[in-house]
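Anyone? Bumping this.
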Amino acid sequence: MIAELVTTGSELLLGQIVNTNAAYMAQELNKIGVDVCFQTTVGDNRARMKEVLAFAMSRADLVITSGGLGPTRGDITKEVSAEVMGRTMALNEECAARLKTHFAKIGREMTENNLRQAMIPEGAHIFVNHAGTAPGVAMEKEGKLLVNLPGPPSEMKDMFHRSLLPYLAVKYGVSAVIFSRVLHTFGIGESMLETKLDDLVLAQKNPTLAFLVRPTGVIIRITAKAESAAAAEKLIAPMEKEIRARIGDFVYGVDDEKLEEIVGRMLLERKLAVATAESCTGGLVASRLTDVAGSSEYVKGGVVSYTDEVKAEILGVSKDLLESYGAVSEPVARAMAEGVRHKLGAEVAVSTTGLAGPGGGTEETPVGTVFIAVSGNDGTIVERHRFPGTRGQVKFRASQAALALLRRYINQGKALH
Amino acid sequence: MIAELVTTGSELLLGQIVNTNAAYMAQELNKIGVDVCFQTTVGDNRARMKEVLAFAMSRADLVITSGGLGPTRGDITKEVSAEVMGRTMALNEECAARLKTHFAKIGREMTENNLRQAMIPEGAHIFVNHAGTAPGVAMEKEGKLLVNLPGPPSEMKDMFHRSLLPYLAVKYGVSAVIFSRVLHTFGIGESMLETKLDDLVLAQKNPTLAFLVRPTGVIIRITAKAESAAAAEKLIAPMEKEIRARIGDFVYGVDDEKLEEIVGRMLLERKLAVATAESCTGGLVASRLTDVAGSSEYVKGGVVSYTDEVKAEILGVSKDLLESYGAVSEPVARAMAEGVRHKLGAEVAVSTTGLAGPGGGTEETPVGTVFIAVSGNDGTIVERHRFPGTRGQVKFRASQAALALLRRYINQGKALH
């Protein structure tokens, strides 16, 4: 089965946004063995879009569009698609009712143009939009399928997984042939990883190994090709085991797992409540911890202490300490973690103090220097880091290091000393 | 002049990399007034690439490819392009000599397959590659132009600016400038915007208007085409003025400005220090405020109060209030802002308390309900919101609403009551 992706919208044509939707859909379709052979981008121009869609339908079996399903005059993808498939449009009462409910729920007035989104080509299969307002549709003609998905990536992805994939599975019996396992590492660089795993990289065939640098750390992607997901997993398992035997300490998670989710699960299992005291990360550690659904079960809260005053008065860091060592120092990181743990009555606490830059660096304490402390029943440990990058990168890397140290502390407790 | 971009390569088709080349080329061409009407991506498949290029040459005046000029067997773009243009390929001695010099310089052996890069379609104009080895070419036929650029972004960009733009300027005298102005709004939906600006959208010609939904809110892009940037700005100014006259309250910034930067600048100018008290946003407001370089000048810090305990003990919210109204309520939001302002000795403070979900909603207080308060010398104001979306989206939107209310408070002070 040959597929073509058609992404629409002037922002794409003008290069104002990068086409992440095409990459995402291609990747997901590939995983289930659908060959994407063409990707086309066209603007909100009726004649050109019609030409593109007609041509796509002539050379592909499956055409998926994204974009142009919204309420405004420029949103014409569904209309033009209906034209290409020889169908008329009519107001779908169910879709209209869903729109009205949505607007009532968020307490906003529904302007008339919103009803454009409830206009559906006759006989089309409807995909409900659970992440926005514009529904998607699928239309069949002579054994070929044209699918319209929304443009905003969060809506497109939700509909792709929730509705389109199951729909394709039923329709074509497509099944997984490519299967990947991602190992997330933190604290080890790409070249060191390659050195430690060099022979595995050289001998790779099926599964293959790839290292990819991400803001969260380097990820190792193990990819296998097989007839089924189970068969692919069987190829991947021994490779994963070998990698973990060599660098297991640096691997904190797999696949879509996030470090904040893993730490959260550990806190929940061990019935520990956590508190944060942040200087250079400015609330990012607390924000990441609370990104996880259900985190109110184990997050007490935190203090962002951006001034010495707040460090002293709220966290109880002694002024002597601040004066003798400076705010960016091992003793202050320690006192911050211990202070917030005591103050908020948490079992475990994590603190950050450092220089995110771009200004303020000295020879002794250059920009990127960050002290991270974790305090709990097993005592307090402190790490000194030096992160490269922009202010935003230093902040994120420091938050990642803070969560990684918290994870190791909970895992190993006293063993860390 | 109509242009089509053809990007080639399996990594793009498989979605392993995002197509930043297409976005870049589109943006740069647009700036000189060349209309990119189509973007197509195709793999290293001879038949399909030939079809795509032939079709592109039939509907566009200028076709620019990127990718597939390298030394390996899979690099076929130049060959296929020559076929489409009816030209034979021959070894170009100058290109071959340049390759040999290059390899000698970096002290590497030049394998035979590298000479593929010196095979040039007869009569083609050659673009020297100053950032890599594969030269680019341009071929003319019946007044239309086919250009092959390399795939690696650094090589493509270097050749685009150093060679292609001057070549196009001489050939077509292209010089028109496209200039955009982005207005960032918050608190008004896309459909309501269109309703309020409908006549401007209908009458648009030059400049044009577009609405785009972003996580930060809806943005309005005003785009003008003119002979110079100054002339384009002159076309944009009256349109911007008219839009601001109608919906100015919702416009918080322009172009690349971020709300946290705008708020930061205002705090700095007015010499106000800010503090935050966050429940549902979990530190995100503080984190965004401290994303801005120099924010230590005006951010005192904040408290993430994820439990009633922390709200009461650190922020001084009365237990009566928490019991009678619940944590997610107008009076608690008010007490949090006032409490943190007092506690941290800040001139102005912002608080959030709400339900980010997905669990925990009730009929009275459904998921997405967020109270936001700002407290300062002009008193305290509280807003009630209901945000749609996932937990992450509710968190971000609440942080955006908190910063927006802070901005309005600083701007308008007492006038808000």
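Late reply, but here is one note on the structure posted above: Residues 285 and 399 of chain B are 5 Å apart (CA to CA).
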